[in-house]
Write a structure and sequence with these properties.
Rossmann fold; 396 residues; globular; six-stranded parallel sheet; alpha/beta; 2 domains; single chain; seven-stranded parallel sheet; 13 strands
């Protein structure tokens, strides 16, 4: 099958990571795949993309890296010509602005189009014009996808007339499914101090200020634990000032952005997600896959579904600092609880979000919009059907 995937850029980010994972997997099983980053200034691929994938930078194709309405129109025409020339069996697009461009560029071409929101679109901060464009144009797509079941009903009300509205989760990268659980490396020295880990951009929505406040209220109860918050962003100065004011400079670390998040997560003994809003928090999924016991605010979408209503992780009432403090105290004080939660989390998400499982869901979506996958090769059949390591151990 010929698949074209459109994404804004291939910089570091959740949507870009998923894009690279999908195009590499589709090409590995024998599909003809074209990846089109639409970013006006081109850029580079932060995540590795297979040589078997046809990588087309729209800025090069359009002959302009300028910004503004005329340059955007030029790129839109170039995108339409590219779709006409390649005649893909299906076009998939990521992110609101790219989705709008994809709908306009493919109009009248009779090419199935699946547009994908990569965060919670109901709570997403977008300008009024993008909201109007989404409301007007999304009903013209063959399918719209969101990342969590909790998003479906409110988004259907926000954008009425959508033909098909489906849920498609992010896949775990294949090498993460096979990674050893956190804390089991026999060569690594045993940690003298334990780490509670958080990770994400230092922005208001991540609510790391509430996390620091909660941690400050229990430092006397857990003297052998430190809080590590990985990430970079505009709230760094405010968070550093909060840590200093609380006298926690020796207990709370803000080491910055890491190029090896899984390695850092593997050094932790527990993970916490303090966000006010998420679409599908990849970092929570990855922490669970690594076998970390997790606590998360029950924000509008993502954590409840990932943890199966709190069975595989501790859910905390959204934005409740006192409840977060009590939950973290419980988590960090109970070795048996951490061991049980970590084991359950790894087993569950490695089964539910393995790459073969999510690829099978994509194939079902392709069939629904009339882009029937070609007969799979023997390798593809093996890739889709083989159970992951967690599934082989049994379903929780």
């Amino acid at each position: 099958m010929k698949i074209m995937l459109l994404v804004s850029s291939m910089h570091a980010g959740g949507a870009e990571r998923v894009a690279a994972t999908l195009v590499n997997a589709w090409s590995a099983r024998g599909d003809r795949v074209t990846l089109v980053p639409t970013f006006s200034s081109k850029g580079t691929c932060f995540y590795p993309v297979s040589d078997a994938v046809d990588l087309v930078w729209l800025a090069d194709r359009a002959g302009t890296r300028a910004k503004g309405p005329m340059a955007a129109f030029t790129r839109l025409r170039a995108l339409r010509r590219l779709v006409q020339e390649q005649a893909p069996d299906v076009v998939v697009s990521f992110l609101t602005n790219v989705n709008v461009a994809a709908i306009l560029a493919t109009r009248g071409l009779n090419v199935p189009l699946i547009v994908c929101e990569r965060t919670n679109p109901v709570l997403q901060k977008v300008s009024p014009i993008w909201k109007r464009l989404r409301r007007a144009l999304y009903p013209r797509a063959d399918m719209v996808t969101v990342q969590a079941e909790d998003t479906v009903e409110p988004f259907a009300k926000q954008v009425p007339g959508i033909k098909r509205l489906a849920v498609i989760p992010n896949p775990l990268p294949a090498d993460l499914v096979d990674a050893p659980p956190a804390g089991v490396d026999p060569i690594a020295p045993r940690a003298v101090r334990k780490r509670l880990m958080a990770m994400g951009r230092l922005v208001g929505e991540k609510q790391f200020d509430l996390l620091i406040e909660a941690f400050a209220g229990l430092t006397g109860d857990i003297p052998d634990w430190d809080l590590w918050i990985w990430g970079e962003g505009p709230k760094r100065a405010a968070l550093e000032a909060q840590v200093t004011q609380a006298g926690l400079g020796h207990r709370v670390r803000l080491p910055g952005r890491t190029e090896s998040p899984w390695d850092e997560l593997a050094l932790a003994q527990a993970f916490v997600l303090s966000s006010s809003v998420e679409g599908f928090p990849n970092v929570l999924l990855e922490a669970m896959a690594l076998g970390l016991p997790c606590a998360a605010f029950d924000c509008p979408s993502g954590p409840r579904e990932m943890t199966r209503d709190g069975r595989d992780g501790l859910l905390v009432p959204a934005n409740d600092v006192a409840a977060l403090r009590d939950t973290l105290r419980r988590l960090m004080s109970d070795d048996d609880l951490r061991g049980d939660l970590g084991e359950r989390a790894a087993r569950a998400v490695r089964r539910r979000y393995s790459l073969p499982a999510v690829l099978a869901q994509w194939d079902a979506l392709f069939a629904q919009v009339g882009a029937h996958p070609a007969q799979a090769s023997a390798d593809a059949n093996e890739l889709i059907s083989q159970p992951d390591a967690a599934a082989r151990q049994g379903t929780p």
